[in-house]
Structures
1.
Amino acid sequence: MRFPGYLTYGMLLLTGLTWAEYRGWSLSRVNQVKDVPKTVRDNPGAYRSHYGFYPRYVGGK
Amino acid sequence: MASPLVAPPVAKTKALSCPNCGGPVELRGFGHALTVVCQQCLSVLDVSTPEVKILQQIQEKQRITPKIPLGTRGKFAGVAWDVIGFQRRTIHEDDETFSWDEYLLFNPYKGFRYVTEYNGHWNFVTPLESQPTRFAIAGRPAVAFEGRRFKHFDGVEAITTFVLGEFPWRVKGGENAICDDFIDPPTVLSSETTQHEVAWSRGEYTPGADIWKAFALPGNPPPAQGVYLNQPAPAKGGSMWGTFGMFLLGLIVLAILFATASRQSVVLDKRFRFSTADAEPSIVTPVFNLEGHTAALELTVDANMSNNWAYFNFALINDDTGTAFDFGREVSYYSGSDSDGTWSEGGTKETVYIPSVPPGHYYLRIEPEMDAATGPYRVQNKRTNAMDYHVVLKHDVPNYSFFWIVAGLLMIPPLFHGIRSGGFETKRWMDSDYPPVTTRGGD
């Protein structure tokens, strides 16, 4: 075993990747909100997204 | 009858008197010595005949104290060696002087060996009985020996500037020889060419600590300075790239495994129409079920728009627990033509990964936005924009972005090693006849 440090580093990365993939981790920004009322299904307008708005591109060339 | 358990012979000493100073001169070389240098007065004596003659007188001011005292016994690979001679060799290059030291070792069974030292770098040197084969690598001289190829490093004229002890050849200060070094670290093959002969030897780089241990010398060896010609590189980039290749293969196997093992089940596939004239822009989808383990969801929204944008506020709401995952995506697509030709920017489709969604019953709330002022329609005398959009939601999907990140992270150590190794080799060859970088003012 010529590079034990690198082997350990690589194995840790692959193990971490396997776990991240299995659990469905993602780099996407998603806000989690608790206790959304059941009434949202009947009145969708009553809920306002807690997600911050992206800066919007409205241009063209 | 001699016992088979007799101890091996040791180098016995024979004493002479120096004809110059009368001091004792010890001979340890079992009669091999042709020249001895008196340690008291530095007279170089010819001891090849019973009549000891003075060949040369070395000045006292030239005296050098060897780091390994003459007469010291050391062990290398289980063989005992006596230090019987010492000489300093010097070269002159570009108004600079470089010197290295050579210690002559003797064992009555094995013969002679050498230990050399330059700036704290040591080599254990064995004379060769056969000559290496000369050839060329990329136009540069090289030699082949015992299946290995050695590149020419340098060729210098070395002058013996100081001698002490005994030698199996006629040695004296001021003698010169052409020395050529060929390297395949940690080995160096050296040739010494004089008027009468060409002698080859093989040196193995030996850390100073090993020399100190072998000769049981007090204290610590002098620290090694710079990079020596056959010093082994601290890192070999090629080997680490091999390990990187194995990891890359592992990554590919993992990617294939997740691509085939992930369910990627479509839990929602619906088309909607949105108009800025709608009283309530937000809608909710029917409840769908996510089964299995906590996994990522992939949401794709495809809107039929041109030269326009739309923003989608999404909330994936767990109908059982009331937990919502809020996120948004913009879809914008612009195209046209100008003097440069046709162009387009953006796209009508966007994908977002929702991480770590536990199993349960969910529905999706969608609230689109568009700029009504640019709309082609009029409702109640107001401009209106509208679009059709298609939402697909897949459960338990692989996310390959992590694979690229891990591949990048895995590449860092081999890159670092490669750069370090390259820097080491550059330093090594800077002192050769083939410097990879020429300094300003140099040739």
Note: Chain A touches chain B through 47 residues (CB under 8 Å).
2.
Amino acid sequence: MKTKSIVLVASFIMLISAAFVSPFEKLVSQKTHISFFSSTPVEDITADNYKATSTLDTSTGDLVFSVPMQSFEFEKALMQKHYNGKDFLDTKSFPKSKFVGKITNLDQVDFTKDGTYEASVSGEMTIKGVTNSVDEKGTILVKGGRVAAESTFDLTLADYGINFKNGKPASNIAKTIEITFKGEY
Amino acid sequence: MKKFKWLKPVLIAFTATAVIGLAVVAYLLNMPHRDIQSSQTDYAISANLLVEEFLASSDTAYEKYLDEAGESKILEVEGEVYEISKDFNEQTVVLLKTTDKEAGVSCTFLPSEIDFGQHLKVGQKIKVKGVIRSGANYDADLEMYEHVIMEKCDLVTNI
């Protein structure tokens, strides 16, 4: 009788833990790289950020990332100051940017099988307190049970209330910049 | 020739102004990044207290620690090593957090000859100097706590 109950309890525990290690779970990535690239005839500007946090729910396709805006590093100190300032990203008032979205073609992504999958992502991006809908493409890489995501897309600064009417910024910063995201979950 | 006597000081003044102006522009364009490690520390605080400050009132804490031009406060934070990792830029990242807390302080280290991954041990108490980038908070979309973020860090205490 006693052994029977032990077996029962043991199998119950195994069942529960099996449920927890199933591939359908919320993955967290704190190893990320976000960069942006602005190109004009006058100059090219890039900035890098390695401190974003992202979650990916492999059962629902929910994809979130949160980006600490002051972590963008520029080559030139003056550019970084301008970027952080009130007229540009106002990072003191809006210290984080966020994307909340979903992988819309989840049926075409198999998180349990090694491979490279094209993912369609749609959701809402909030930068400097302004939210816009975005639909972008990305790549999901599954290798040995590890999941990584990559995406490159364009972002129009004016959509987020970042406008340069005149002066140096208007000629040196592109109206549309290229964002690259990479994350290991 | 004599009637152009006034020209000399004007020319000198003009040249001097132009040289100074160009020097200022050149300086601004090539202004070096702030050297965090040789700058003065603004606040010394424990990792847990720093997290608490942000969780208690994020507005007050952001007002206190963040700078409008991105030159935010330089902190010396004391805490327990919870996790050591590397980021995509091959920089060492040390999370200062105690096991009973949900959020800690994530410190990205400057390149160093010391291999922190080898020298630091989980549970070890250390003091780290760096610049704060963002605060701790519970994020309902991520469904998790986000750590305080510090960068350009180095160890204050010897290892």
Note: Residues 152 and 180 of chain A are 4 Å apart (CA to CA).
3.
Amino acid sequence: MKRWLERVAKRRDIESGNEFRDWLAVEAGADQPGNWRKNGYQTMAKQRIISTTINGNVVEFLAAPRQTLLEVLRNSLDLIGTKEGCSNGNCGACTVLLDGRPVDSCLVLAVEVEGACLETIEGVAASDGLHVIQDAFLEQAALQCGICTPGFIMSSKALLDENASPTEEEIRFHLAGNLCRCIGYDKIVRAVQQAAEGETN
Amino acid sequence: MRDFEYEAPTSLDDAVALLSENPDASRPLAGGTDLIDHIRTRRLEPDLVVDVKKIPELNVLEITDSGLRLGAAVPCYRIYGDSQIATSYAAVADSCRIIGGTQIQSRASVGGNLCNSGPAADSIPSLIALAARVVIAGPGGRREVAAEDFCTGPGRNVLESGELVVEIVFPARPEVGGSHYRRFIPRNEMDIAVVGVGVDLELDASAGRFVSARIALAAVAATPLFVEAAGAALVGQAVSDEAIAAAAAAAREAATPIDDMRGTIEFRKHLCGVLTERVIREAVARARGEETGYRIGQ
């Protein structure tokens, strides 16, 4: 019996990349899908290898279906510039660009980004200096605690990539999905306006 | 987040087969802006999540001679980003521009908004007003349901075990027609409708008389509400303050809202009248090709 368990566990390790959880699950008789309900144990869903491009680099990572893109960026890939705020799509602190579109990475499953092109705050600055939006945020003092800032910069970048000279109203509506609880929004809007002027010039 | 399995089939048949295996423990995933949050908070506990975004039929977005086909997984930004749809099926574009913020609009779909079946869903009154039909696929084959018959209660709808919405189809536009959706919220954006009103109008060739009219309300009943009487108050009438006021009165009359943190019954019924009038005037202006003053947040 023990040898059989070892064999099963080894096979499952290879297939899934999981270790101890599957050991426990197999011992509890949960090697058949659905058995965990009867036995009170849950087998971990299979992890998969996900291949994406992040900030121009091809990146492969292991992720279980239940992991959000935000979790993987921060916990597996050490890209901790992307912040976790509300975790339910209200605050925009975790905004990244997915195939050029701003998304809340807390509402994207990591397994969904297979083959996608991602851009995070870590990829915004050039090697020789800050991006014009980052410079504008500094010059306009458009941040205080800074937790919302990476999200605001990613959203602003998505806006300016699409619309080089937005009106103040367009900026405010575009940034509606990003919340700042320190300084309010006027300085942020001014920073985006300055960045737009900088980019146009 | 709770553990679950994930599949991303590339054909509708495969998706139906996956969802039918264990229908009560499976959920389709389109934009995920509601589903992922519901799983995280354990309001839903699926064992299998079926990502439907790789299925071609659910990504269709096209205007043909017979009307508009809107795949159930098409995200909001693609809808309002299509200038032909934004003009011809303006109410749907109006809805998509105000569902969540930009990040949500990158992912959230009208199909998902419909399947969540919230009484305050911003896209559903537009679907009802524009006489959309919902195409459903399941283990028993395909069927179609009128948008106004889709929702059966808060968070409940006509979908049966193993079924999913494939697309939403809209009839071709009349020669002279206009549609509009707007809602009242205390902020400018990122909020749930206190009341929402969607309307679609057809005018005669002189654009002076109502030929047909469909009006639907959000957040004033257990489901999005189709108010036939409000449309009927306009049909055959000249475009006039009196006709518009009669339609607004019918909308006010049909509403059966609740008191909650967003508004009282009295306030919501009042809003039904005010918004219905404004929405009709905007749709008339659009049908006439006039410059309109509508901006989001008004």
Note: Chain A touches chain B through 39 residues (CB under 8 Å).
4.
Amino acid sequence: MDTLSAIAEPNRRKIIQLLAQRGNLTASEIAGHFQSSGPAVSQHLQVLKEAKAVFVTRQAQRRIYALNPEPLHELRDWLFDLTNQWEQRLDKLDSMLSKEKKDSNSNKSQSRKGKKNGSKS
Amino acid sequence: MAQNHEAQFERILDAPKERVWKAWTDPKQVANWWGPDNVTIPECEMDVRVGGTIYIVMLAGEAMGPFKGTRWPMKGQFTKVEPLSRLTYTARAWTEGQGPETQIDQITDVTFEDQKGKTKVTIKITITNADTAPKAALQGMSYGFNQQLEKLAKFVATKH
């Protein structure tokens, strides 16, 4: 599964956010934040691991999970670009339309000189 | 495993639907606002009817540094055209002069709703080659680095 698909699932997204906020955590610490069973959580961890969104280190008996920043940064940048592009586009469209409106309003008030107040919308 | 991914953007524009529709369907007007910062639109073709072509080329300007002069075409077809209320197209975007690894396939669905004389525009983008698209986008164009993970999560959703 690609990284984007892996982290799109809400529970897995929550795991990613936990790791982002708290740093490294053991499987049982992660499971402590979920209602669902331990096996369900470890299945999610397994998917995240296979998608290279997290990596695991062993300390004695414990498995410690940490974020794997590389693929997450790639995704972040990609989504940022997509978002950024559309936000900028809409900003430009917005200012094009409002400039036009301002121009036509000032024309109106010019031509309606003498009348009481141009229409306000 | 390839899955679809969606991102959605909304904006309320201070103009009636008729005006906003025109801004989206007249190629001259589209060319005015389509390019993000530091990007111009040297070519823009909008044959707004079902099966008609949409073809827009973005050209990186001076301020894009190493990308300057790069052309990013997008070509596709309109699949839904409901005057004043909906515009849907499927398209492929790529980096000119580079291979298929730069391709991004997407469905873009734009709806227009009247809100007391203003217009709410909703843009829903479905990326249909999500397994390769993030890499493609990175190779073609990357000029932003500050998004937080929470925001990332907000924009990521699996299409079931």
Note: Helices of chain A lie at 3-8, 10-22, 27-31, 38-50, 69-111.
